[in-house]
Amino acid sequence: MSVATIRAPRALQYVSAFGMSQDAKVIAVQWEETEQHYWLPVSRRPQTDVKIFQALVEAWRQEVQFLSSVTEMSLHPAYQRIIGMGASVLPLLLRELENRPDHWFWALTAITGVDPVQPADRGKIEKMSEAWLKWGKEQELSW
Question: What is the pTM of this model?
Answer without folding.
Answer: 0.67
